[in-house]
Amino acid sequence: MRLSLGANNNIQELRNFAEWLLNIGDGLAGATTNGESIIHIPSDILVKNSETALDDLIDFVYPDMLSNLSIENYFKDRAILAPTLDCVIDINNKMTAELPGQERVYLCSDSVCAEEEKIEFELDAFSPEILNGINCLGLPPHKLVVKVGAPVILLWNID
């Protein structure tokens, strides 16, 4: 993570914030009870309205997104860290919906190449509903929604 010094920030304030983030990441912030920590979040960075929290977060991290789409480093210099893949999907879908243009939907293959002797078990164990519902690290989502001009990160697994 990289923090940059804005117009109104002082260096010591930025160092304190970076140290606070590192302490949270290392599990050193807050009082730990039964493996859980209670962390005080400063009110100036706290999202207060839970009904529009996702919209507020996206607007904070990506201000004026539509007018900055053509700027080369606009998306590269910003990121929203999410605790689960479900949160990532929600954020991606919300941001894609905000972009202009027609959506294109791509679905993954959801059939099983079963061996003849085990075909009954494999067809029950790996039904299309189960395969389409898998959401884990290392596998692409079943349904990918993209638009022309949307940033896409392509990864290549060389393992």
TrEMBL record:
Superkingdom, taxonomy of origin: Eukaryota
InterPro entries in UniProt: Pif1-like_2B_dom
Pfam families hit by this protein: Pif1_2B_dom (PF21530)
Limits of the DNA helicase Pif1-like 2B domain: 129-159
Protein name: DNA helicase Pif1-like 2B domain-containing protein
Organism in which the protein naturally occurs: Arachis hypogaea
